[in-house]
Design a protein that fits this description.
- This protein folds into two domains: 77 residues; 184 residues, 2-Layer Sandwich (Alpha-Beta Plaits), CATH 3.30.70.1230.
- The chain has 290 residues and is α+β, with helices and mostly antiparallel strands.
- The protein contains seven helices and eight strands; from the N terminus they run ααβααββαββαβαββ.
- β7 and β8 form a beta hairpin.
- Strands 1, 2, 3, 4, 5, 6, 7 and 8 form an eight-stranded mixed sheet that branches.
- The relative contact order is 0.10.
- One of its GO terms (molecular function) is adenylate cyclase activity.
- Its EC number is 4.6.1.2.
- It comes from Meridianimarinicoccus roseus.
- One of its GO terms (biological process) is intracellular signal transduction.
- Its main location: membrane.
Amino acid sequence: MQRDTDRSGPPSGEDPAREIRLLEKRLRKANLRRAELEHLMDASHAFQRNIINEIEAARAEVERKSRELEALNASLQKEKARTDQLLRSIMPEGVAEELKTTGRVAPRRVDSATVMFADFVSFSESTERLDPVVLVGMLDHYYSAFDQIISRHGVEKVKTIGDAYMCVAGAQDDEQGHARRMLSAAREILMFVRDSRANPSRTSTSAWDIRIGLNSGPLSSGVVGHERLSYDIWGNTVNTAARVVKASAVNTITLSESTRAAVGDDPALRSLGRVEAKGIGNVAIFRFAI
């Protein structure tokens, strides 16, 4: 009997259905792994996007804070400049720098300085008849000009007391020449007052007369107060200057003997003799002719 060797189908021992199931199983695993990989990739991309968004947000916040700091710094610098200007307006620049650097000002005493008082004549009567706005405007007109004048001559403003303008030269350095510098400033102040009287329209009302008195000698200076700082000078030299201005004629400059000696010989100086200064005694005075 002949053996049938012409059978069709898979080799002996192979099951096509089983092979298909294995392939389908592998395919499902591959699909599952691909899905897991895609999920991981999506999660990674989302994470990266979140990181990038956070970085961008942080960068934007840093830039915003930087702009705020720049604006704050600009504001602080502006306020610092205003504070510096305020300090320089109420005390000499050297004193203001010492105060900013150390937080205090050491009292000073010099052997020779020159003090000037400039008093407006009939000021009290003006305060009674002038509108307050007009009065303040006139004071500002004169005192602002006085500030500019003394600055040009190296003289330091001390303070204003109503109608009295007080300044000093040599209180910080005790250098020679302070009397001559003060006299030059006084002359320019008097010329300004005379010009204001000749052109009253510049002050928008009637102008004032003035008396100017100078005295030289030793004095002390310093800053007093805590909440409200005040630069001031003290000593008999200051008191004598206040008496000299009272003896001055209207629209003239009067010097004490000590200032005349510090200025030196000048043909414009004329002796007026001696006057009684309350609490001080007789004081020799001189008029500086302009």
